[in-house]
Automatic annotation (TrEMBL):
Lineage, top ranks: Bacteria, Bacillati, Bacillota, Clostridia, Lachnospirales
Ranges where the ABC transmembrane type-1 domain occurs: 93-290
Protein's name according to its UniProt entry: ABC transporter permease
Family: Belongs to the binding-protein-dependent transport system permease family.
Keyword set includes Transmembrane helix: yes
GO biological process: transmembrane transport
InterPro entries associated with the record: BPD_transp_1_N, MetI-like, MetI-like_sf
Amino acid sequence: MLRYTWKRILTGILSLFVLVTVTFFLVRLIPGSPFRQGGVSEQVVETIEQEYGLNEPVLTQYFSYIGNVLRGDLGVSYQDPATRVTEIIARAWPVTASIGITALAVSVLLGTGLGILRAVTKRRFVRELISAGGMLAAGIPGFAAAILLLLVFSVKLKWLPASGLLSPAHYILPVTALSLYPAAMIARLVGNTLDSELQKDYVLFARAKGIGKWQIIFTHALKNAYLPVLNYIGPASASLLTGSFVIESIFTIPGLGREFVGSITNRDYTLILGLTVFMGAVVIIVNLLTDLLCAWLDPQTRRAYKKAGDSAK
């Protein structure tokens, strides 16, 4: 396991390095200058670019930026030189994370509950209703669900607020829009895998010993059935935690998504790169933790890595 952990960590670092490198050179391909706005003269633009080192060769800028990143310095925003990129991230990240964590919790709880119900119920109507609802939820794009929820519950019925995050009620619509697809996928995975687990010999043996159905499900079957679900929850949680740009734009939420869209519009190179580095790191860390958790929970995986380590010796 230790060998596997180090391998995954090194892979994550390499992935982040590639992401930063590709993003850096793609940003430099954006036409125009971040300072060429509002009728600023060419001489002033050149002076500002020289101050920020944008007149130097691209490779020089690249190595300088990588060195700053390794020291934890993501630079200052070109549009607001008095504000550092880390300050913008520190301000916007809690907003995005609060929505993402809430949506993740709702997705896991709702999806797991519906998946268990689909696997254990004897009523065909209930199984088909859950399957049909999951297909419908998974088939609706997030932005379409957000707009539909906004029109119905904010504009038409006026039950819920339409923008901002000023109260718990403001979370309901964006969290619902974000949760629909992952909840549907989790319900499908849990339902299919749990249904398969309940047919295995160890479950039949437990039933023969007189162990209750729900005890078998929550003590034995669900743990084994949840391994494929964890493989999905990892990337899904990373996506939710880094925010949905469209959802944040629709509900006017001051999170990372809005900052990222604004940075691209304004050609704010350092902010684009800083947000990319941060969100890439979050995605890599969440996926790493998920992989390690799956490897720890799966006995076959642990044995495989132990044998690999023994053979290497």
